[in-house]
Amino acid sequence: MASPVSGGWHRIETREEFVDAFADKPLVDEGIHFILTADGRISGSVDKQPFSGKWYWSDGYFCRTVCLDGEDLGQDCEIIERRGYQMRYTREKGSGDTSIVEIKLP
Questions:
Q1: For 5-59, what is the HEC assignment?
Q2: Of the candidates 79, 75, 77, the residue with the CA atom closest to the CA atom of residue 65
Q3: Which of 48, 56, 6 is nearest to 30 (CA)?
Q4: Is the pTM of this model over 0.85?
Q5: Which residues pair with 54 in a beta bridge?
Q6: Please, what sign has the CA dihedral across residues 84, 31, 22, 68?
């Protein structure tokens, strides 16, 4: 897969940079598929269970509230990083679990 950005991970610092890199693009990994829209909505599924919510940018962090299959998972603010077509997000402002998804290309 070709990569628009070479090298290591680059932290996304602004809402504008985040929207340009990842908004309105399908993000996938094994068992997960979701879209983060430019207007702040989240929708997708994890292991075939639907989830939805809202996101916003605050002090350099991607913050979101999500419900998974009707269960409120609460709010979390995450560090977002980019490497090519991949997005790495680290929960709890960088002190929690890390996951990687990638943009699904046509």
A1: CCCCCEECCCHHHHHHHHCCCCEEECCEEEEECCCCEEEEEECCEEEEEEEEEEC
A2: 75
A3: 48
A4: yes
A5: 41, 65
A6: negative
Q: How far apart are CA 66 and CA 42, in angstroms?
A: 8
Is residue 66 a contact partner of residue 50, using CB atoms and an 8 Å limit? no
Q: 10-103, what's its fold?
A: Lipocalin (2.40.128)
Cβ burial, residue 84 (10 Å; 0-12/13-18/19+): middle
User: What is the CA 11 to chain-centroid distance, rounded?
Assistant: 13
β-strand 41-46 against 32-36: which pairing, if any? antiparallel
Q: Binning pLDDT at 50, 70 and 90, where does residue 41 land?
A: very high
Residue that has been written with the tokens 């929690």 in this structure: 96
Q: How confident is the model at residue 106 (pLDDT cuts 50, 70, 90)?
A: confident
Q: Where does residue 78 rank: exposed (0-12), middle (13-18), buried (19+ CB within 10 A)? A: buried
